[in-house]
Every structure is written in structure tokens, then in C-alpha cells.
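Thread title: Can someone regenerate the structure for this chain?

I was given the following input by a collaborator and told the matching C-alpha cells would be attached. They weren't. Posting the sequence so someone can regenerate them.
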Amino acid sequence: MIDVIVKVGGGLLAHPTEFERALVTIAEGATKRRILIVPGGGPFADAVRRTYQEMSVSEDAAHWMAVLAMDQYAYLIASRLRAGCVEHSPTQIEALIDHGRIPVLAPSSWLRRVDPLPHDWSVTSDSIAAWIAGSIGAGHLILVKPPGASGPSLVDAHFAHALRAGIRHSIIPADQIDVLTSAISGRDSVT
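Best answer:
Regenerated them for you:
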């Protein structure tokens, strides 16, 4: 069982200090709780959005290109964590945690096999993380957003449909490290 899925937003790459602090906080939390990291798409997905607009790429192609962007960010995140490792399917996640590793999911292979979500821009890595949380039975999904993030449009249009009933979720800007620490530890009341 995974206690917490932490989705690390790609927008954090524009804020290197907060990005590193968030990863340190996640790594510290992983010493006490069973954590799976799901990457956002960040600048890799932004490149897909630009290509989609400029080159008339189909929504289907853009969807899979954006999912592959998450894989790229997974490798970056894992490289920044001492115990980080990239995993491509849900089957080995628990074994990696049992061996002291912090798995970072590169979801393209798994999503390609099951294809559970619409292929349009209503779905971003937030909805993918929500679907993953439900698929592996995580009790809590934390979405780490860029510093100062606020407002009603912090998640994509499909998020509420992708998040299964009973899964707690928290949306935390990376500059609120104490809130992130509490959420990872399970002591939060943020939703």
C-alpha cells in the first residue's frame, strides 16, 4: 500500500530553490511513509503545447507526447534524489519502497497499456496523478504547485472526474514547505 502520492508539478523547475526544498522534504517524508512521486510535465509538456499549436498536431499525438514529457521529468526528479529511481509500471513500486528507494513513476508505458483518460487538453498530469492514486489505492494525493499558486484553476478540468471518492487530496504551493511537511507526514488538514 502506498500512503502518499506526491505529484511534483513541472512549474517548479522555474523555481530551483523551491524545487530542491520540495524534493528534500519528500525524501525526508519517505523515511517514515510509503511515497510514490508522480512527475508533472513542466517545460517538456510546454514544448508539446507549443508544437500542438504551431504544427497542427492531433490531440491524440499531443496526449502521448505530453505523457512522454512526464517520463522525461521523472528522470530529472529521480536524478536529484539520493534514493530516487525511475519505475515504469506499478508492479515494482512497493518492492522499491521496501528496499529504501523513492520511486518516481514514468507513466507512459502503463498509460499506453490501459489508456484510461481522454486525449485532450482537459487532462494534464494532475488528472493522471489522480487516476494513478485510485489505481494503486493510495490514501492521499498531494499536488505540489509552483510558489504562490492559488485560485480555483489550480487543477485541470478533468481532475474531479479522475479522482476516486475516498482519496484525500491536498494542493500545496512549494513555498509552503511546512504545510508540505505536515501533509506528507499525515498531520495536515489541507484539501
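The chain has a mean pLDDT of 94.
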